[in-house]
Amino acid sequence: MQSLDYLEETHGQTPDAAIIWLHGLGADGYDFKPIVKQLNLPPDLSIHFVFPHAPTQAVTINQGMHMNAWYDIYELSLEADEDEQGIHSSMLALESLITNKFKHIDPSRIIIAGFSQGGALALHTLLHGSVPIGGVIALSSYLPVRHLALEADKQRLHKQEIFMAHGEYDEILPQQLGDLARGILLTMGANVDWRSYPMAHELCAQQITHIREWIEQRLA
Fold this sequence. Notes:
Blueprint: E1 6-11, E2 18-22, H1 35-39, E3 47-52, E4 56-59, E5 65-68, H2 84-101, E6 110-115, H3 117-128, E7 135-139, H4 154-157, E8 161-167, H5 175-187, E9 191-197, H6 205-219
Parallel strand pairs: 2-3, 2-6, 6-7, 7-8, 8-9
Antiparallel strand pairs: 1-3, 4-5
Helix pairs in contact: 2-3
């Protein structure tokens, strides 16, 4: 299992909470490092942020070009085959990072956040992982390997806190995919805070405000 390289930044003093933020396909940990300042969290909320870099690999949908990717993507469609082995491998690497780095933090105060492919990995880890966490932020994302979702431990999902957001004009991952994921998670008993914005495959200022409010509610 490959260990993950990462960037890190601390908000506040003596962090008692952690947020692991996963970038999208072709990006890296630097992509979301500025989010720490953009969130404008209160100074009394101490959080250790970690921004892992996905390993470099060939990505089928991008003509086999090598880039940072949490797993391979064959095509963008609801019926497409998926890189289940790659998804599982990245989940194990992510859980290893959490276990090794945040032993001192209460699992209920550990959040996995992710954009696009990173959000998909965050949701998959919530459903199928073995390391307890306190919630997920999935932005402009989807639920991978949906056929395995019903095999997940419903007790692990019961009342689990999830923030999901999607752009109404997302041309990369249509909002339909986010809606589909939300429906499955609600069926399994999770608490999903769903937000939709008039934007494409991106973040907007209003969304960042809502993320901050959600984080404060979870970790204050």
